[in-house]
Prior knowledge:
Distance between the termini of chain A: 58 Å
Structural class of chain C: mainly alpha
Largest sheet of chain A: 8 strands, mixed
Shape of chain A: globular
Oligomer: heterotrimer
Strand content of chain C: under 5%
Helix content of chain C: over 70%
Number of domains of chain A: 2
Largest sheet of chain C: 2 strands, antiparallel
Strand order of the largest sheet of chain C: 1-4
Radius of gyration of chain C: 20 Å
Number of strands of chain A: 13
Largest interface: A-C, 49 and 62 residues
Shape of chain C: globular
Number of helices of chain A: 12
Order of helices and strands of chain C: HHHHHHEEEHHHHEHHHH
Number of helices of chain C: 14
Strand content of chain A: 15-25%
Number of strands of chain C: 4
Radius of gyration of chain A: 23 Å
Helix content of chain A: 40-55%
CATH class of the largest domain in chain A: Alpha Beta
Amino acid sequence: MKGLxxxxxxxxxxxxxxxxxxxxxxxxxxGVTDKEVVVGAGLDLxxxxxxxxxNIKAGMExxxxxxNEAGGIHGRKIRLIAYDHVYQPPKxxxxxxxxxxxxxxxxxxxxxxTPTTKAIxxxxxxxxxxxxxxxxLASIWTTSGKxxxxxxxxxxxxxxxxxxxxxxxxxxxxxxxxYQDDEYGLDGHLAGKSRLKHQxxxxxxxxxxxxxxxIDFSSQAAKLKESGADAVILQxxxxxxxxxxxxxxxxxxxxxxxxxxxxxxxxxxxxxxxHVEGLMGVEVxxxxxxxxxxxxxxxxxxAKYAPxxxxxxxxxxxxxxxxxxxxxxxxTGRSLTRDSVLRAIESIKDWDPGWGLKYTYGGDNRRxxxxxxxxxxxxxxxxxxASEWTELKEVGRR
Amino acid sequence: xxxxxxxxxxxxxxxxxVYALIALGFVLIFKATDVVNFAQGEFVMVSGFISYTxxxxxxxxxxxxxxxxxVVSGFMGVLLERVVVRPIMNAPIFSIVIATIGASxxxxxxxxxxxxxxxxxxxxxxxxxxxxxGIVSFTAMDAGVIGFSLVIMAAxxxxxxxxxxxxxxxxxxxxxxxxxxxxxxxxRIFSLTWAISAGIGGxxxxxxxxxxxxxxxxxxxxxxxxxxxILGGFGSIPGAIVGGMLLGILENLSGYFFxxxxxxxxxxxxLILVLVVRPSGLFGAAPVRKV
Amino acid sequence: xxxxxxxxxAALVAVAAILLVLPNVADNYVIxxxxxxxxxxxxxxxxxLLTGYTGQVSLGHAAFFAIGAYTAAVLAERWHWPSVLCLVxxxxxxxxxxxxxxxxxxxxxxxxxxxxxxxxxxxxxxMLLQLSVIxxxxxxxxxxxxxxxxxxxxxxxxxxxLLFVVTVAMLLFARNLVKGRAGRAFLxxxxxxxxxxxxxxxxxxxxxxxxxxxALYTGLAGALSAFIVGFLDPxxxxxxxxxxxxxxxxxxxxxxxxxxxxxACFLIVLPELLAGLDVWQALxxxxxxxxxxxxxxxxxxGALQRYAHRWFGIGVEPMIPRRxxx
Lengths: 398, 291, 326
């Protein structure tokens, strides 16, 4: 083929360029120098869950900026490097390699997405890079061994709380599950199923799924109505409950809707209006609008460093990860290694950053920082607390 | 049971009408210029954001926003045509398609940068409360979407049938050479086609955004509309409309009988079955094989 | 033209030498990116054979990629087949499916073919989720690294060489195919099906063969990708991936082996170069895409051909028929 021959010149030029870009600096450090600590994050910044990615990054950066301006921790500033994986596992792997091999990050923090984080799991373990507080509340991260530490209560555990509440307190036995048909939705869905069976000898009266970007739930609404469920557990995010509630109302069906933390956003109320009045959820950390010194600081930091973003559960989520990490750095002291920071994290017990919720490392079998949850309900257009903070029990998926 | 099914059909028809409008946009451009505009879905998305900005940030009344959105979208269509498509008009079709794909990426990421990826609700004058008419229950929203879409389609039909420009557009679609010989300014017709197509996308955006909420990735609805157009027959305007509506209804019905995954692919299974029997879609004419 | 072939030959040797030596001077990240590049080159070769040479538009190649990947993964996990057989198995299964898909698609052309193949992608993607008993569905599937004769390809270094060897081999095979009788038949079908039939080309046979070979390449690429990434998730094998594949061959240049390589470079290497741009990455990428195609409507290889012709008098001006399969 003529083109192949003649173009080999171009290829060699290209490859030459590649070699140039290939030979990055080779250092022996692990993301720690005298002056700084480098943190890496693989996030979705333009794809399916970009809203979370952008906000988590902003939240983390806000806290780090403030800490850095005050001189850093033990003389070191914290630098965050984030790359966009667009919720694609292969790209997440590429980005992880760049973060670890090129940017020499100290830890991977807040990695977003369940499939994407699963894809890099073996790699970070092989490279002995801690994967701390990944931005996915799937139960796998709390049970995967030394290099992974989750932060908040998992969807599975939250659903356990929901089931207990429905059956024991509300005496509801006809419960349906509305869940996203992927790993995210399945986590809570299967955990709920297991809890119903093992604890109460019950089963869902309907299991209705939907695809992530689905826009119409009229068929799901119809199926739910037919099942006669008095309560529907929503393994969804903030987009689906408003629409589902709307379409159920349109056919005259008004069950109790309740679901884990991703539905507890101000956005849900904004989108759903009166249809979501009475919607219940589980929150695993306080609302961004709650009072308290930590949240005041959060609001101030966001206003200063990310003024274009509204304060929201999504960036508070990133912010509290950063706060945990900062606390761990503080405890580790000047001599900083990956092992020592992991031990510092494990040493955290009953630590309250200033918002009433305490972090305690859960132990080797349940490597998370908080297992607390609280029921909330939409009342008069606002999320209001419906229970006190409780320790969630561990619920398996089988 | 019948009641539930009929309400499924009605709400499916509402989504179907939006698919139909978007499909119409595809087909118009295709008939006139042979180009498949992969940025059509993004037109819908951008006009959704435009109307949001006009409505919320500037507080302009709803009906005026609708008109302005259509106009601004139209301009956007012309802009795209001039900047991206016109320079490579004589290039292989595939290249033009890639240009539109690139344009769609640019539009999507621009929207993301300007508006963020948070979902925005677009207010609408149609309420979402249920209405009952005999055995059928639906919402005013559904009725509004269906009604409005039909009005637009009727208006377009009249435009093409009765006005001089409309006839000129039909002529260009049939044969550019002949149209030129008749004194039609073909480049102008192209720009107009893109303008109308984008404008229709604008209407679709305003109609669908309140239902599915605005976000930069909204443009992916274009793929479904595209499927609808193919189902009906891509070279045919009534085909695109019927195809889109059928798609919406079918999606809902299969969603009722099967789970979410099957619902999504049922339409494509049907599509393939239809194409095997009728390779040019339900209403498409067999392609003229030029020797 | 001795000057050109000497120049071309020398350049080819230089490129091969650089690629052979690369893993010893570059870090794992670069090696990994290059490995992914080879995978996409394979896909592009396959797709170009079908769409560029034979004129059959396919938006279904994400499905073949998936079929190849999952077949290899399942063969390795369930039946513990040796890796080589997993790769071969994956390629053959994919080719068979490609052949079967090609049969009903004989009647379709242009947009309808595109849509049918797109439908195929979506159906396969859904089946991956539904058949979760063997595919692990949305949980995702881990894939152990390939091994051959006791040697495990678990480091980026080794994966690179595995891919390099396979890619070069398949590139040579494609070159022979394209230069031979089949290649001429493909082009004849693309340019004018009626005339080709009149000249005695068995349209049905060559179209289905094109589908099969195309699927084989892409399936093989998928299997290799499974071994180097190590994790499979159904949602990555979407219509969006199919669109990316088509973008590669159009930007690279249709009906051009060099184009397949260049297009893959564009899709894989460019985003890495833009990675530091954060949220602006996608925007810049889209702009570059638009500008590239406007200035190089025949793709990167087409532009090369054009300048080689105009500046050095080498070869001919690129010409590709305007309408493919309409």
